[in-house]
Design brief:
The complex is a heterodimer. Chain A is an all-alpha fold. Chain A contains 18 helices and no strands. In chain A, helix 6 runs antiparallel to helix 9, helix 10 packs antiparallel against helix 15 and helix 15 runs antiparallel to helix 18. Chain B is an alpha/beta fold. Classes of the chains: A mainly alpha, B alpha/beta.
Chain lengths: 405, 247
Amino acid sequence: MASSELEQEEIRPPQPPGFLQWIRENLFSSIFNSVLTVVLLPVVVFIIYQVLVWVLFQANWKAVTQFPLLYTVGQYPRDQLWRVGFIFSGMILMLGISWGRWGGLLRSITLAAGGLLLVVAILPVQHAELTLNMRLYLVSNIALALVGYLIGKKIPIKSYLIFAAWFLIPIIGVILLAGFESSTLIPPVQTTQWGGLLVTFLLAAGGIVLSFPLGVALAFGRRSSLPVVSAFSTVFIEVIRGVPLVTILFMFSIILALFLPAESRIDRLVRALMAVTVFSAAYSAENVRGGLQSVPLGQIEAAKALGMSNFKTTIFIVLPQALRAVLPAIVGQFISLFKDTTLVVIIGINDFLGIGRSIINSDPEFVQLRTEVYLFMALVYWIFSYLMSLASRRIESAMGVESNL
Amino acid sequence: MNNEPIIKCRGVHKWYGDFHAIKGVDIDVYEGEVIVIFGPSGSGKSTFIRTINRLEEHQQGTIIVDGTELSHDVRNIEKIRTETGMVFQQFNLFPHLTVMQNITLAPIWVRNWPRVKAEAKAMELLEMVGIPEQAQKFPGNLSGGQQQRVAIARALAMEPKIMLFDEPTSALDPEMIKEVLDAMIDLAKSGMTMIVVTHEMGFAREVADRMYFFDEGKIIETGTPDEIYRNPQEDRTKLFLSQILQH
């Protein structure tokens, strides 16, 4: 039959090239490319070699390795560290549960975190802060992650409960870290003693969680048909976007304090968080507004024709499509917010960067080691920014499957 | 039988800026009737059908749908939209929702049906339009004809009393027009009140009770399909029919 002949002669898709063929096609495809390869390859190898030699043998990582607690929690009282540990363990447990529930990137993150904990816990060195208790704590967190994984895998927990738990952790965390005036179990700890990665994460997470809804509200406000709402949103967005973050930080940390009565002084860290939040919200608002504009009018008409109110149309039809369209831009905004938190140094908050700088300045010997310290901090910022970027791509592709329109 | 028309339009006018799009239209539609509106592009036929569920606002005249007059009262508008299904030229399915979610969204959130009831209704409708196996797919993975049938099912899921079709086959490839028209013919024969803006003359001949010829924002001629096709009275109707029936 004709059809079976056709099937036999079916053309197979081209196969991916083998290793040698790949080298020939990509590195030696022409005389010029071959010369380029021969010249540049030694240069690249030399540079990598030099960097490795410096990192492994010449660099002195003392200023980094000596103060792991300073880098992570700043001056938080050492006898109250269990509070930070409690929150960290809570997050590890949630990470495990999320891994069990969704897998994918969360699996890689959990495994990487667990691996890091294990490596630190069994480091064969004497270290004042790496006590036996600390090592046991780190190892027990690995077990906790695995317990979380089993819970997430075996027990069908509703997704929104997991989201709610993630949302609650920072809120409970802040309350626990701050403590209460009257409590002996968790006495108050001034935010001036908070520092390091702890503060960086709090500012970034708080800024993201708070600025996003504010940004969405401002985006709708700017499009509102009510002149007062629209004018307020537009002015707010344009003013905030028109001034540098440094200015806003100063405004919230100094000028706000001048206007408010002394007894109602808002905590310094909260003021920094407010500044970061409004700054990020103004940018998020413009991103979201772009997304709102990209939703075709036909979508809104279809929803209205079904009898849906303006509010329901917005919630179910407009917002999901708008946010999906601008997700990469919003995540980009969150990544820059995470890095922008370093500016709080100038209003005297010891975030991760601030701790690094004060360590450098604390000892003439460490001043010589600032390259190592800055490289280490850059690496840490890069790791978390890159994780956010990876997560965004995962979410995008998960959403992309659903939309070929 | 109730002799009051389910849709009653009197002296409906609509302007876009200075452009007079609809110039005084009177139409009565009775329950169970199938009305076909046709006419050249720009004649105001789409604008008119969209005034019936207030996607376009009319500036003069009265439109009464199922005993409720269209006014600025948002509750009236939403009530009328709930009782009136609409199918669009460009389908306008929600791309971020599955076929099933597209159909059940409004029954659940506007009619407050329990999810189980809405999904059972949706499956029933998908079987009626012949694509129950597509329920869990996203609209982007369906053909144009399938998308338009989902759009019909979505509108019907609200159990409307009236169905409006705004050029439902104009954006379809020729081989898909029939599957959509078949679904519409089934619907018409089931007794649904329908207003259809279309140039599909075969469809009109088979199920239309009355036809209206629109030109320049006015009704030029009206009659049964037989009267319109065999014996058009107006020159403009004759000219237009000769143009579209040549093919």
